[in-house]
Amino acid sequence: MKVSYDLHIHSVLSSCADDSQTPNNILNMVMLKELDMISITDHNSCKQYPTLEQLIESYDYYLMYGIETQVKEGFHVLSYFGKFKDVMKFDGELETHLDHNIKEAYGAAQVCDEFDEVSEIIPYSLHQSIDLDLVEYIKLVRKYNGLVVLAHINRPGSTGFLTYYQEFKKYDIDAIEIMGRENEKDLEEKYPEIKDYVHLFNSDAHSVVDINEAINFIELDEISFEGFKRALLKGKK
């Protein structure tokens, strides 16, 4: 079946996100945009998920657990998980790989309750590289049965994979995210290896208005983490 998705959305737990990106606002906007599957992928933290886990029961689309991690090299990696217990255990271990002495420079990283009230402010910066490189980070994700997707590989500057590496097969990744579908053909010509992976096109939304409409689709046999995993593995050569 064709499944509409946006698997790269930030909440107010990402201090760079707009104040409108509270859990309820995000979930309601997704409902209005009639998406089938989403993921909230905050920077270096999954601490918004206990609240999201409560709220998602009121909606008829699928929320897949996710995160956007900045690895030691400096670029961003998306990871997805199928079970709440796995993502929270992963989050607890990932936290040990952050420097808690670095203060947040972009504003407050906020955890919200089910009423969108701030229940916690993370006292250290989530905008930093963890102390694990890509290979080490992938091992951590696999420990908790997760999937690994290189984020916005063609983003200019320090947060895109292509700023650092051009060899994809060297790493145990499952898919890649491309900024702008119009860039796909040029990237395939320049880096033929990327044809061997499923390409995702997400919004990287930092405000509710930027969440994707139902314009990007992936073929799944069922709308679930396992269905998503099978689709990525099927597209991986």
Q: Could you explain how this protein is built, in words?
A:
The chain has one domain (2-234): TIM Barrel (Alpha-Beta Barrel). 24% of the residues lie in helices and 19% in strands. The protein has helices at residues 23-33, 49-55, 84-95, 134-143, 184-190, 225-234; strands spanning 2-9, 37-40, 62-63, 65-70, 76-81, 110-112, 118-121, 147-150, 175-177, 198-200, 217-219. Strands 4-5-8-9-10 form a five-stranded mixed sheet. Strands 3-2-1-11 form a four-stranded mixed sheet, with no helix packed on it. The protein is an alpha/beta fold. The longest helix is centred in the middle third of the chain and has 12 residues, at 84-95. It starts with a strand and ends with a helix. The model has no long low-confidence stretch (mean pLDDT 96). The protein has six helices and eleven strands.
Please specify the SSE layout and strand pairing:
Elements: E1 2-9, H1 23-33, E2 37-40, H2 49-55, E3 62-63, E4 65-70, E5 76-81, H3 84-95, E6 110-112, E7 118-121, H4 134-143, E8 147-150, E9 175-177, H5 184-190, E10 198-200, E11 217-219, H6 225-234
Parallel strand pairs: 1-2, 2-3, 8-9, 9-10
Antiparallel strand pairs: 1-11, 4-5, 5-8, 6-7
CATH C-level name:
Alpha Beta
Specify the helix fraction band.
10-25%
Biggest pleated sheet: 5 strands, mixed
Q: Output the structural class.
A: alpha/beta
Shape: globular
What is the H/E string?
EHEHEEEHEEHEEHEEH
Return the average pLDDT rounded to an integer: 96
Number of strands: 11
How widely separated are the two ends?
22 Å
The total domain count is: 1
Please tell me the CATH architecture by its name: Alpha-Beta Barrel
Question: What is the subunit arrangement here?
Answer: single chain
Q: In the CATH scheme, what's the topology name?
A: TIM Barrel
Given the structure, what is the number of helices? 6
Low-confidence stretches: none
Beta-strand level of the residues, as a percent range? 15-25%
Strand order across the largest sheet: 4-5-8-9-10
Backbone CA Rg: 17 Å
Please name the fourth-level CATH homologous superfamily.
Answer: Metal-dependent hydrolases
